[in-house]
Write a structure and sequence with these properties.
42% helix; 5 helices; 139 residues; globular; two-stranded antiparallel ribbon; Transferase(Phosphotransferase), domain 1; Prot_kinase_dom; LRR_receptor-like_kinase; mainly alpha
Length: 139
């Protein structure tokens, strides 16, 4: 999300989902948007870990230059498969940005590490958003 000065803001991604107002437990009546942002083992419940996963997907889109779903393949799953194959992380970065300088590549790799933590399969292993924000601010 951008403010009026086009400064980026960390935003609650769950606000883009339609919540059933008759329920107080945060259950969803439907989901709006692309399937690529929804975490694995999604249970129709709004969770902080789900927000973190969605944010990680958005960060991946920025770093890799691909949409959340491309040709039927989810970006998060694609990144996870490349990680498990021991591929060099800088090989998946958007070359239009990463090839501009070694500093840009280093910063992108740091952000990629954060994004990878955000899309962890296990919700309990995902970082808290305040940790993500602090880490991104230090890059």
């Amino acid at each position: 999300m951008l403010n009026s000065l086009t400064d980026p803001l960390v935003w609650d991604f769950e606000l883009f989902k339609v919540i059933d107002p008759s329920r107080s437990n945060g259950s969803l009546s439907s989901v709006a948007g692309t399937i690529g942002y929804i975490p694995p083992a999604y249970t129709m419940r709004v969770t902080m870990a789900g927000n973190v996963y969605s944010f990680g997907v958005i960060l991946l889109e920025l770093l890799i230059g691909r949409p959340a779903v491309n040709e039927g393949r989810e970006l998060a799953k694609w990144v996870q498969s490349h990680s498990s194959q021991q591929e060099q992380p800088n090989n998946i970065l958007d070359l239009r940005v990463s090839k501009t300088s070694t500093v840009a590549t280093k910063q992108m790799l740091s952000a990629l590490s954060i994004a990878h933590a955000c899309i962890n399969i296990s919700p309990g292993e995902r970082p808290k958003m305040n940790t993500v924000l602090r880490t991104l601010t230090r890059i």
